[in-house]
Each structure stands twice: as C-alpha cells, then as structure tokens.
Amino acid sequence: MKSPAVKTCDHCPMGQKDEWRKKGALLRMDLLRHDLDLREFKIANLILDKTYGWQRESVVFPQLRFFRDFTGIAESDVVKVLQSLHARRVIRIVTVKGQPNYSLNPDSEAWKALPRASTETMQTANNVMREINGLEPLAIEQEAELNFKVGHAAKKLSTGIGSKPMCKPICQQTGEFPNLL
Considering only CA atoms, which of 103, 102, 90 is closest in space to residue 30? Predict the structure, then answer.
C-alpha cells in the first residue's frame, strides 16, 4: 500500500522552501547561460547560494574576506568583481544601516551580460543529452526544479541504458586507503 503524498500549502514552511528552491534553480540556470567569467560566476553563485539557499531576499557579508574565504578570490579582486556584477545588473548591492546587502537580480532579462546560449539552444542540447543518457525529454525549467528537489530527477526510458551497479574501488571495499603523502 502506497503512503499518500504529503501536500503543502503556500503558507507551510515546506511549500515555501520548495518555492525558494525552484526560483534558485532557475536563476542558477540563468547564471550558467550568461557570459560571466569564472570569478564573476563564483561570486554570483555564492550570493545565490546564501540568499535563496537561506530563503532570504538579500544577505550581509560583514567583510570582504568572507567572499575570499568562500571563493578563494583575493579581496582586491573581489571588489572589482562586485563592481562589475553590480554595473552589469547581475547583483544588487544596497547599504542598510551601514552594512552592504547583496542579492541576485531575479530579472535576468535586465542583466547586461550577454547570454552565451538562448533558452531554446539550451533546451535542445539538454534533450539531446537526456536522450543519449536514456532519459525522456523534459523542459529545461522542469529539470532545473527537479535537480534541486529531494528524490529522483530523471525518468528513464524503457530502451535506455541499463542500470548495472558500479564497482567500488578496492580501498572502499577493504577500508584501507593508500598513503598519499
């Protein structure tokens, strides 16, 4: 007997958490789609993780060293990257009570960063990859949402790739790990 699926309303914490996840997943897809260099992507992604991951509109980084600690980017470069992302409208920086509040601009159409690929191109590439890997075609937005939920994200095709268990390395089977020093 199957247990009934738990439904959540918009006011329940779980329903709100899923909504934040969906929005964050779609913004992450937009970050991947746009022309950002590695440092810009790392910092924008960090802000995304700390806002949508914590279910907040914005987040305070009390010192620039926190950006350095999370991304490995030097503080002098962090300032340049933040200025660049802010000028390109990818992030918002608003000072409240002397503290800068950082957030990702949810309107990716307003970003001054050229998209590397259109959503149609990403959709086509995604479905080709899904087909090659034995999965049914799916809208990119749906996949982004599913990839950030608990549980199975992919529905296998009947003619898909077999699911053979992968072998574990010998060190995982015996519990003995080689000395790498």
Answer: 90
Q: Which residues pair with 94 in a beta bridge?
A: 101
Give residue 30's pLDDT.
84
The CB density around residue 139, as the number of other CB atoms within 10 Å, is 12
pLDDT given at position 142: 66
Spatial contact of 51 and 57, defined as CB atoms under 8 Å apart: yes
Domains and CATH numbers, the chain: 13-108 (1.10.10.10)
Q: Tell the burial category of 169 from Cβ atoms under 10 Å away from its Cβ (0-12, 13-18, 19+).
A: exposed
The CA distance from 140 to 121, in Å, is: 10
Confidence at residue 115, expressed as pLDDT on a 0 to 100 scale: 64
Q: How confident is residue 165, by pLDDT bands cut at 50, 70 and 90?
A: very low
Rounded to 5°, angle at Cα 97 from 96 and 101 = 30
The pLDDT score that the predictor gives to residue 82 is 95
